[in-house]
Amino acid sequence: MTNCMLSLNPSKTLPIHPTHPLLSTPTTRVTFKPNKFLTVMRSGGEPHHQQPSLADALLNSPRKQQILEAIDTKSLSNRCLSETNLHLTVPGIGSKIPGKVRDIYDSGDYLVLVTTDRQSAFDRILASIPFKGQVLNETSLWWFERTKHITSNAVVSAPDKNVTIAKKCTVFPVEFVARGFVTGSTDTSLWTVYNNGIRNYCGNVLVDGLVKNQKLPENILTPTTKAADHDVPITPDEIIERGLMTRADYEEASAKALSLFEYGQQQVASEHGLILVDTKYEFGKANDGSILLIDEVHTPDSSRYWIANSYLERFQNGLDPENVDKEFLRLWFKSHCDPYKDEVLPDAPEDLVRELAWRYIFLYETITKSKFEVLSTEEPIHDRISRNVASALSSLK
């Protein structure tokens, strides 16, 4: 457990002076609105106990113990949906397209997207995390519903906690990565490339003097496209020149991406004591020519979240932010192997796997203000999904 806990409390980064110019100028001022936990005096002069901070609730709370106990009631393997085969169990299901996390099935007029518990990073599968698929699916559905004023999406229905049935569309081969801070640990993260001296990244000119975890003067997009089995950064001009998108489609999708990101940051995350640091969006084009938001929205898989009320102090003292995402899993693997080059990776420790399961649920409950439902495992997960999908597809005919 020692190694895991070291990863949960990140090491120091480059220290900066509290009066760093980019912190004091209006265009780069931290604009999130962290929750304030204040001490209130009783009439007799005796202070109330402070309301627990998000960091306290994340690290040690009765709810955390409930979730860890639920995981421990069954073995991790029984709690995880690592593989699906609906093409063998559901009538009318056609071919299966396995993804890193989602398995996609063709059912004729619709696609059936099953979100598994597979955990990916560094363009490979690292582990299976209990409840993860359910968290991602339900988190995305929550955001899809609340962002309809910004963009239409492909969702048709959700017949199971792990399943979304979606409209078919032509998927653009571009991921729109929205960033508000200079951070990250992967090869394509903004801090990695910036620290390597790159000052023009995906069409964005970056000024000198930025340090790790610093807020950018404004949000930016750093698009990527696929090459073999990994993501490759690409500029807007290259996207258009290579015919990946038309200029009109790119401009519409990029505007939607930035609007979604700003909404997620200012209207939701900041109101719940969080910072939405970066995320990625995918879009497709429907038969009627409209551009639809697809895949997932602002999940802990596609996004980086920090706790807001400790960010500024930790940043000014050269400490990494308190994070509520899979970053500590990435850091653990980077400290124990080369996740890009090693053919065989070490198994993630079980206590780290349980911790990540809790963090995903914590983030879902913090954002949605809904209690996560821990489903019974009396019925095997795959059997439950097959039954629910078969029923949903028959009703759509």
UniProtKB/TrEMBL annotation:
Q: Does the keyword ATP-binding apply?
A: yes
Q: Name one Pfam family in it.
A: SAICAR_synt
Query: The SAICAR synthetase/ADE2 N-terminal domain covers which part of the protein?
Result: 99-343
Q: What CDD domains does the record tag this protein with?
A: SAICAR_synt_Sc
State the superkingdom. Eukaryota
Compositional bias segments (type: Low complexity): 13-22
Which molecular-function annotations from GO does this UniProt entry contain?
ATP binding; phosphoribosylaminoimidazolesuccinocarboxamide synthase activity
Instruction: Please tell me which top-level EC class this enzyme sits in.
Output: ligase
Reaction(s) the record says it catalyses: 5-amino-1-(5-phospho-D-ribosyl)imidazole-4-carboxylate + L-aspartate + ATP = (2S)-2-[5-amino-1-(5-phospho-beta-D-ribosyl)imidazole-4-carboxamido]succinate + ADP + phosphate + 2 H(+)
Report the protein name in the record.
Phosphoribosylaminoimidazole-succinocarboxamide synthase, chloroplastic
Which source organism does the UniProt entry give? Lupinus luteus
What lineage is this protein's organism placed in? Answer: Eukaryota, Viridiplantae, Streptophyta, Embryophyta, Tracheophyta
